[in-house]
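In this section we walk through a basic example: taking a raw amino acid sequence and producing a predicted 3D structure, encoded as discrete structure tokens. The instruction is simple. Fold the sequence below.
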Amino acid sequence: MTRGRMLVLSLFVAVAAFTLTAIVTIAVRQRTGRQPSQSVAAPASAPVPGRKIKARLYYVSMDGTKLTGVDREVAYADGAQAQAQAIVRAQLESVAEPLVSAIPHGTTLRALYLNEKGEAYVDVSREASSAHTGGTRDELLTIYSIVNALTSNLPAVTSVQLLVDGKEVDTLAGHIDLRKPLEKNLALVE
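The resulting token sequence is shown next.
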């Protein structure tokens, strides 16, 4: 590769990185009304080794039409935002039979933000949408397994908005409006 091509490639990468940072900053401002550096919650800390809490996580019921709550041990973390991250990670983990996860396999947590109004913004990987089975009921179960896990376990979280791959989305699979934070919905729990 010639020196000129290397310079052009380096310049392109720098511009792309700057553009991505600007887009993320604008998205955070629009969603939370504040600068990213003005985070309300303390920075997320790593889970405390060996310490656990009991949290209610949500899985598909035996008949496949509702969620069922299951108390599981989850890593303890200092602060509401860090504990929220630990709960979502636990909710996204694979589970052994007879439990069935409502969340598409391969979905990971990319980021989680908590603002002063108690709105949690949960950014999950694209598998949440691209690997989704579809259908209104399945989409409801996927969304509310995360929403209910956070709002049921953490009083600091009043509502949850799902983002996919760093972006606001209208829906996961074409049915449920995700353009605003959603509150707990225990009507879906048996």
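Looking at the output, two observations stand out. The first strand starts at residue 52 and ends at 60. Residues 13-22, 32-43 have pLDDT under 50 and may be disordered. In the next section we compare this with other chains.
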